[in-house]
Amino acid sequence: MAITACRSYEPGEIEAAVGRLLERLGGLAVTIRPGMRVALKPNLVMGKDPAAAVTTHPALVEAVAKTVIALGATPFIVDSPGGPSANAAGLRMVYKKTGMAAVAERLGIEVSYDTAEVEVPLTERSPLRKVSILKVLYEADAIINLPKIKTHAQTGYTGAVKNLYGAIPGMRKAEYHFRVQERKPFGELLVELNLALRPVLTVMDGVIGMEGDGPTAGEPKPFGYLLAARCPFTLDHYALSLIAVKDIEMDRVAQARGLVGPLLLLDDGETIEPVPFRPASHRRVNFVENHLPPFLARPISRSLRPLPAFDRDKCIGCRICLQSCPADALRMERIPQLDKDKCIGCLCCQEMCPERAVEVRQTGLSRLLFGSRR
């Protein structure tokens, strides 16, 4: 895998950095040929300005798209945000706010509004034997994965592997969260998605990442690097070592399955320094699931899971959280009210809130056992 310093989103600097990465990996022409239709899959979890560090920066998407065009292929930008933004109107807003529509206009390429689905089989290792995936993404001749490096309140980290969960259309994500509630099976599902989609390249936006309660409510964190690899599992494993975030289930699953290759770091002699990220403040503790039998682990883990809390001053009553909740655990009064017995701890409400009005709080048992993390 390759890494290079990149301190800003100035187009010249980004394009030079992407050029260095691709040269170190042997070039993009190895996998991208003239006439191919190439899906560019950024992280567009919601419609936010690029300065918020929630989504992949459009400067990186544009630099990669230009390289694909130069090879005679046709790139297009595609993602399916969670919650209610996965219809045509929602997608239009997301593409505009994240800067993707402007990139597409400048380069004369498409942003995809195609929400058609296709059922894709997964192996027996997956907790789900088949999943619905965006048809336009699955049928592309090649996929280039363009994640953003961020910590994550529910999974601990989101990067290369987690970004392809965005291949699942809109509210299907919430459905699968409901059906796969435990950490290890969810890690297996993410790994299986990557094996089914097989991106030919991942280029990670690490100029400015996000730390704390990501993927949407954390704080921007200058990181100063772009990373690229043919293997998303190896890229994530190395990225985690740089930001000093540990105990990530999808990485644990990938290692156990032998999917993390030997690290051959292509840095051309650049000095690469770790940049520790502050983890999510209430990351769910997983030693219970890893070290107790299932009949004990499930109820204890449920009692320890962090729960969403709604800020009366920030909430605008948009109801996006209600529409995004796979467990139907919210009802609306002045602010959303949580049914703790129904809540599965997926934190979709926190992830999709456009006003950052959802905090993640420890339960009483968690505070008693581990102390307050605030």
Task: Identify the notable features of this structure and list them briefly.
Alpha-Beta Plaits; 9-stranded mixed beta sheet; 15 strands; alpha/beta; 374 residues
Plain-language structure description:
- Pfam families: DUF362, Fer4_10.
- This is Ferredoxin.
- Residues 306-335, 336-363 form the 4Fe-4S ferredoxin-type domain.
- The chain has 374 residues and is α/β, with parallel strands linked by helices.
- The chain folds into two domains: 2-256, LarA, N-terminal domain (Rossmann fold, 3-Layer(aba) Sandwich), CATH 3.40.50.11440; 287-370, Alpha-Beta Plaits (2-Layer Sandwich).
- The chain contains 15 helices and 15 strands.
- The strands form four sheets. Strands 1, 2, 3, 4, 7, 8, 9, 10 and 11 form a nine-stranded mixed sheet that branches. A two-stranded antiparallel sheet has the order 5-6. Strands 12-15 form a two-stranded antiparallel sheet.
- Helix 2 runs parallel beside helix 4 (100-107) and helix 8 (183-197) packs across helix 10.
- The longest helix is centred in the middle third of the chain and has 15 residues, at 183-197.
- The two termini are 37 Å apart.
- Residues 284-288 have low confidence and may be disordered.
Please give the structural blueprint:
Layout: E1 2-5, H1 11-24, E2 37-42, H2 58-70, E3 74-77, H3 88-97, H4 100-107, E4 110-111, E5 117-121, E6 130-134, H5 135-138, E7 142-146, E8 148-152, E9 156-158, H6 160-163, H7 172-179, H8 183-197, E10 201-211, E11 219-229, H9 232-243, H10 249-256, H11 287-291, H12 294-304, E12 307-310, H13 320-324, E13 330-332, E14 336-338, H14 348-352, E15 358-361, H15 364-370
Parallel strand pairs: 2-3, 2-7, 3-4, 7-10, 8-10
Antiparallel strand pairs: 1-11, 5-6, 8-9, 10-11, 12-15, 13-14
Cofactor: [4Fe-4S] cluster
Keywords: 4Fe-4S, Iron, Iron-sulfur, Metal-binding
Domain 4Fe-4S ferredoxin-type: 306-335, 336-363
